[in-house]
């Protein structure tokens, strides 16, 4: 091309005759630009004819003769020997025979062809074994076959086009017809299954497979162990340790294919169970990752108990019985709650669900063995639950199993194989894996515990079954910090999202803004947030303390000491967060107020009190009494102070007399506190509680120290004065009125006042 | 014995005759052949049963694949009890006719109701957004 250009230039200067030539050359130049070098260098027609012949042969090989046309990309440089290609005969030859005969030559030439062309583009033409197309195609083929190799000119461009369009997706060509480029995609290559086996042999086919058939449904290809390098994403620079499933062509959700056991087994059992972590870019799934697909579970569980090869018809019956026997034998060595056998470690293994269908009776009327005991090593039921189920099952097993009879005559039965059933069941079971049953299934556990206790109580002597505690296999928490998959050499953050790792959409970064106006508003919110935060922290401590008892029962002897220590520290911490910095026996007013200003905090306090040791609890109650007016004010909305009544009552009843006196004093506190206290329901209740307790003390124990100093008496006097002074409207009805108040008052006040009080209190009692 | 969670409990029901009620109101009766984790069902020799009053008619449908989310409920059919039925079986044409009549009657009553309501100056919003029925 370049030479001709220079020649042109030379020519233009010299002769005019060559102007015409020049023009033609110019046109050629345009041609060149449009169609590429091949337009000038090669005679495309010639090329095409040659290749058309080739194509025919390929078609014959592939589709047994009936094929739509497509043309192969001509190689840029090297041209296959036309002589090496035998002429195509009529398209009636059977494919295998053809393959064998032409395999060598064809393979060679096609190899060269394909290797020469752009690997990304080269695909074999759409070949459809479509019988309906046979008649029209044969016409098209005749002119082609009629072409001797060096005379391609018979095939006009139009015919060529026609053929192209007749065929399936037109193939991209590198050379002169390079207008069709890579993005064409690949046409569906439907190959008759009989040819697949033959295809294994020739190198040509392997190339074609590798390069040209990505649109094939992946499962078949993938399971043959082929490497569809086209479809694999670029290599990863980082990959989460566990969680992201390996690159696989088969999506996780597909049910197992029928003849699958040995291929997958090989794939999965090649990496031995020693490896705990899957190395990056490891193609096989890590042996026991946190997330297992049902397929892997199936294979891991099934492989040690491989099914013997039975013909399909006999299969279901025997395998079920066989398996039942196997499992029955398995049940023996497994101690209940013992460690799982090494081949089924952790929570991943051991899920072999049972199906209660009695096997269809084949001919003989042999009663099926009751092969549905509940496996002890599989589902982690509470022992009580398991007992109930066995009972239920036994009672049901006595009833009919007639259905099996009917099913044996049903020709469509067992369309769903045992494997598939297990697979479905396994998916459900996987969801039940739990690392902490108390966390995940709190109510279930509690319910069965209660039931057990109840049964124990009722049938104490009859049943001598030891109360078993549920010991679940702890699936190790393998959750590491999740590092998302990153690809090597990629611009930006490409993420691969999978079922297990949904895509991280936003990179959230914390930024703080300083703006004066917002500050003030924020402060308010911050304060509230602070309070809530404190409350939350205290709650977590409290929950630890509450759960102590349960944990205590579960832990073995040696660790009990440590647990006890831990418990003590927790309780201490709880109190510490409430108390004053310096004083041990006084609760910080500020803290108290802060916490109690939120509803959650009040709840917290009410739950907290029972767990504190008496002196500390007393201090807390004092604090409450001291700050009661403020608390009452804050409680106007919620009205939930009354949650505190019960725990406070308990505390009061365990108080000493001096403490009680102190408490009463606190309650009265400063001037005007008492009226406000009386306005609040809780306040009144608290007051009554104190008084009632005092009275109880006095009446029960004549030597009680309550009367040692005059404080108690004085306080009660002031209380009575206040009660009488306060108008009834501002006297809030209490939650309950202790019965011994009257006797208390009768000690201290005269008749008249007593009657008045009685009236008032009765009013309040009635208006409850 | 049924301690299988969720869909797995259907495994026991395979190859048994079931009655399936769909969200659009259809009743299918067929032999349950296959399930998956979403409780998609494959019913074999399915029959769609239309009930009108005390009569019913069956339309044979062949094989049905039902998407799990469209199932309201399903239950096994007791083959013994199926024989003694109070309902009267009629031909397909008849039952379809009956159904049509029933639909018409319903529409008519709806129309009247709407009219009466309109007369009183009220309006009932159309239940366009309601699902099914």
UniProtKB/TrEMBL annotation, chain A:
UniProt-annotated location(s): Cytoplasm, P-body; Nucleus speckle; Nucleus, PML body
Pfam families: PAT1
Residue spans of biased composition, Basic and acidic residues class: 221-230, 395-410
Domain mRNA decay factor PAT1 positions: 487-630
Gene Ontology biological process: deadenylation-dependent decapping of nuclear-transcribed mRNA; P-body assembly
Region (Disordered), start-end ranges: 1-45, 60-103, 213-247, 392-414
GO cellular component: nuclear speck; P-body; PML body
Residues of the signal peptide: none
Biased composition (Low complexity): 238-247
Acidic residues bias locations: 7-31
GO molecular function, one term: RNA binding
Biased composition (Pro residues): 72-85
UniProt entry keywords in alphabetical sequence: Cytoplasm, Nucleus, Phosphoprotein, RNA-binding
Similarity remark: Belongs to the PAT1 family.
Name of the protein this chain belongs to: Protein PAT1 homolog 1
Source organism: Alosa alosa
From TrEMBL, chain B:
GO biological process, one term: RNA splicing
Domain Sm: from-to ranges: 5-80
InterPro entries per UniProt: Lsm1, LSM_dom_sf, PTHR15588, Sm, Sm_dom_euk/arc
Signal peptide segment: none
Assembly and binders: Interacts with SLBP; interaction with SLBP occurs when histone mRNA is being rapidly degraded during the S phase. LSm subunits form a heteromer with a donut shape.
Location(s) in or outside the cell: Cytoplasm; Cytoplasm, P-body
Cellular component GO terms, alphabetical: Lsm1-7-Pat1 complex; P-body; ribonucleoprotein complex
Alphabetized SMART domains for the sequence: Sm
Gene Ontology molecular-function annotations: mRNA binding
Key words, A-Z: Cytoplasm, mRNA processing, mRNA splicing, Phosphoprotein, Ribonucleoprotein, RNA-binding
Function: Plays a role in the degradation of histone mRNAs, the only eukaryotic mRNAs that are not polyadenylated. Probably also part of an LSm subunits-containing complex involved in the general process of mRNA degradation.
Family: Belongs to the snRNP Sm proteins family.
Organism the protein comes from: Alosa alosa (allis shad)
Cited Pfam families: LSM
Protein name: U6 snRNA-associated Sm-like protein LSm1
């Amino acid at each position: 091309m370049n030479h001709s250009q220079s020649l042109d230039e030379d020519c233009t200067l010299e002769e005019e005759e060559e102007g015409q030539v020049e023009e033609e050359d110019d046109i050629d130049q345009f041609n060149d630009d449009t169609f590429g070098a091949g337009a000038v260098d090669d005679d495309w027609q010639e090329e095409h004819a040659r290749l058309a012949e080739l194509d025919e042969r390929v078609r014959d090989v592939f589709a047994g003769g009936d094929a739509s046309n497509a043309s192969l990309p001509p190689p840029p440089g090297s041209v296959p020997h036309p002589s090496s290609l035998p002429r195509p005969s009529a398209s009636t030859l059977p494919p295998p025979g053809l393959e064998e005969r032409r395999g060598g030559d064809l393979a060679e030439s096609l190899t060269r062809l394909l290797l020469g062309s752009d690997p990304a583009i080269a695909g074999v033409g759409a070949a459809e074994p479509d019988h309906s197309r046979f008649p029209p195609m044969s016409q098209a083929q005749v002119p082609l076959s009629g072409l001797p190799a060096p005379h391609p000119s018979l095939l006009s461009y139009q015919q060529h086009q026609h053929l192209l369009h007749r065929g399936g997706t037109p193939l991209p060509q590198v050379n002169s017809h390079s207008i069709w480029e890579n993005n064409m995609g690949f046409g569906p290559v439907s190959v008759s299954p009989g040819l697949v086996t033959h295809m294994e042999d020739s190198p040509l086919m392997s190339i074609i497979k590798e390069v040209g058939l990505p649109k094939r449904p992946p499962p078949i290809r993938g399971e043959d162990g082929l490497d569809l390098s086209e479809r694999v994403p670029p290599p990863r620079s980082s990959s989460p340790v566990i969680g992201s499933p390996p690159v696989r062509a088969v999506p996780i959700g597909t049910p197992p294919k029928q003849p699958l056991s040995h291929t997958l087994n090989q794939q999965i059992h090649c990496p031995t169970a020693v490896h705990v972590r899957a190395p990056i870019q490891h193609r096989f799934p890590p042996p026991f990752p946190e997330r297992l697909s049902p397929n892997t579970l199936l294979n891991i569980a099934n492989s040690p108990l491989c099914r013997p090869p039975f013909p399909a018809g006999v299969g279901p019956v025997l395998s079920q019985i066989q398996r039942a026997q196997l499992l029955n034998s398995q049940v023996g060595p497994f101690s209940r709650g013992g460690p799982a056998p090494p081949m089924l470690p952790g929570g991943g293994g051991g899920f072999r669900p049972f199906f209660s269908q009695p096997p269809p009776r084949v001919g003989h009327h042999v009663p099926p063995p009751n092969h549905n005991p509940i496996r002890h090593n599989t589902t982690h039921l509470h022992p009580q639950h398991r007992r109930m189920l066995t009972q239920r099952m036994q009672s049901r097993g006595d009833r009919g199993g007639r259905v099996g009879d009917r099913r044996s005559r049903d020709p469509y039965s067992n369309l769903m194989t045992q494997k598939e059933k297990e697979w479905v069941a396994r998916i459900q079971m996987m969801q039940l894996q739990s690392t902490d049953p108390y966390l995940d299934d709190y109510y279930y556990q509690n319910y069965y515990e209660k039931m057990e206790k109840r049964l124990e109580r009722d049938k104490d002597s009859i049943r001598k079954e030891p109360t078993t505690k549920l010991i679940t296999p702890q699936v190790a928490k393998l959750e590491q910090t999740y590092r998302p998959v990153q690809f090597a050499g990629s611009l930006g953050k490409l993420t691969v999202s999978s079922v297990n790792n949904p895509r991280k959409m936003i990179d959230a970064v914390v930024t703080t803004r300083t703006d004066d106006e917002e500050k003030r508003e924020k402060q308010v919110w911050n304060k509230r947030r602070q309070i809530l935060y404190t409350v939350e922290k205290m709650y977590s401590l409290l929950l630890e303390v509450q759960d102590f008892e349960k944990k205590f029962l579960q832990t073995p002897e040696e660790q009990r000491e440590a647990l006890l220590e831990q418990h003590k520290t927790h309780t201490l911490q709880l109190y510490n967060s409430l108390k004053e910095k310096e004083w041990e026996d006084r609760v910080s007013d500020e803290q108290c107020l802060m916490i109690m200003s939120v509803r959650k905090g009040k709840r917290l306090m009410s739950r907290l009190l029972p767990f504190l040791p008496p002196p500390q609890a007393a201090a807390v109650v004092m604090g409450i009494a001291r700050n009661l007016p403020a608390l009452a004010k804050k409680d106007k909305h919620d009205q939930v102070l009354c949650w505190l009544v019960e725990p406070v009552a308990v505390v009061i009843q365990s108080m000493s007399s001096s403490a009680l006196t102190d408490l009463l004093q606190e309650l009265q506190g400063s001037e005007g506190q008492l009226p406000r206290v009386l306005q609040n329901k809780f306040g009144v209740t608290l007051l009554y509680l104190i008084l009632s307790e005092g009275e109880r003390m006095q009446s029960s124990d004549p030597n009680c120290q309550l009367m040692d100093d005059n404080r108690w008496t004085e306080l009660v006097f002031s209380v009575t004065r206040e009660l009488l002074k306060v108008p009834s409207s501002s006297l809030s009805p209490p939650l309950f009125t202790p019965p011994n108040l009257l006797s208390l008052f009768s000690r201290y006040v005269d008749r008249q006042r007593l009657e008045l009080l009685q009236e008032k209190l009765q009013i309040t009692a009635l208006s409850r | 014995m049924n301690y299988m969670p969720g869909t797995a409990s259907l495994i026991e029901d395979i190859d048994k005759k079931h009655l399936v009620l769909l969200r659009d109101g259809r009743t299918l009766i067929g032999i349950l052949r296959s399930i998956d984790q979403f409780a998609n069902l494959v019913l074999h020799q399915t029959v769609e049963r239309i009930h009108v009053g005390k009569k019913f008619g069956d339309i044979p449908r062949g094989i049905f694949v039902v998407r799990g989310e469209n199932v309201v409920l399903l239950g096994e059919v007791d083959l013994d009890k199926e024989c003694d039925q109070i309902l009267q079986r009629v031909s397909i044409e008849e039952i379809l006719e009956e159904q049509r009549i029933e639909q018409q009657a319903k529409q008519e009553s709806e129309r009247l109701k709407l009219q009466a309501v309109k007369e009183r100056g009220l309006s009932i919003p159309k239940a366009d957004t309601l699902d099914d029925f």
